[in-house]
Amino acid sequence: MRTSAVGDVTILLPDLDPADLDPTTDLNDNLNDNLSDTLVENASWRSAVLDDVPVRGSRIVGTDLSESVWEAGSLFGCEIVRTDFSGASLSGVAVERCVVTGSRFTGARLTDLRLKDVLFEGCRFDYATFTRVAATGAVAFVDCILTDATWSSCRLPKVVLRSCRLDRLELESCQLTGADLRGNSFHDLKTTLGNLRGVTLSDEQLPDLTRLAVEELGLTIRGQ
């Protein structure tokens, strides 16, 4: 069993052997097989539509899924590497025991996703919108770009963010109790203090937290 520890969280990872996977680049030929035990490399699936399709035990590498639409369905036990989801729309998808590395979600719309044992590493989520995304197990973002993104009505307790860029990330009505946000700059974070209730921070982040409090309370700070 493969695992990855990020902070105090241990994430179960897929354990795939490429030799056991069936290679393909044709999406339509594999929908009847539910994309199970498949190796997809350098495919062009731009604007693809996946409606309630389960994807299991598969490895997707260097594939263009920009502007694609994913409705319901699931991703289980998958590895996704250097894949482009720019402008994609994912709604109602359950993602479990997956690792996503070096992939691009610029401008993607992620709605009603359910995450459990998911690791995002070195991914871009700039200008992406997370709406009602919920974690039911361990979830971590490592070395990810979340600039100008929006998290709205998300429930991500105990999520871990490490070495991520959060410039102008906007939080709206989120529940992040128990989240570990150490190692990230809050300098341009756009949020009220309520969204940070119960999170774990480091000493170095206290000046940014103070700035947020001063702005929210409308305080005037003057010298004596």
Automatic annotation (TrEMBL):
InterPro entries: 5peptide_repeat, Pentapeptide-BTB/POZ_domain
Gene3D superfamilies linked: E3 ubiquitin-protein ligase SopA (2.160.20.80)
Family matches, as PANTHER family: BTB_POZ DOMAIN-CONTAINING PROTEIN KCTD9
Protein name (record): Pentapeptide repeat-containing protein
Organism of derivation: Micromonospora rosaria
